[in-house]
Task: inverse folding
């Protein structure tokens, strides 16, 4: 019985090969979807088996989300400034 040990380079190349194969599979899947879209578009429609749903939020909900993000951004900026100025611990409870 012969034991063989793989070098770090061999192990790395195997890991790289696996990653490349996964990426290749993803690219092939995307290409298949694009081909199906192109074919169906030429026939005047979109395939029903593809999930092409686009989620639209009502305008008030979008504004609420934008306002909330602005508020959180403002709080984070204030906390960052406090940390820079004082170098003392700051409680993050206000972010919820």
Result:
């Amino acid at each position: 019985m012969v034991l063989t040990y793989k070098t770090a380079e061999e192990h790395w190349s195997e890991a790289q090969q696996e990653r490349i194969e996964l990426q290749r599979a993803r690219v092939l899947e995307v290409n298949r979807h694009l081909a199906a879209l192109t074919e169906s578009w030429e026939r005047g429609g979109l395939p029903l088996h593809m999930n092409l749903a686009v989620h639209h939020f009502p305008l008030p909900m979008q504004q609420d989300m934008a306002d909330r993000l602005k508020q959180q951004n403002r709080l984070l900026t204030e906390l960052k400034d406090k940390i820079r100025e004082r170098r003392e611990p700051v409680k993050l409870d206000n972010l919820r």
About this structure: Residues 71 and 77 are 10 Å apart (CA to CA). The mean pLDDT is 77. The two ends are 62 Å apart (CA to CA).
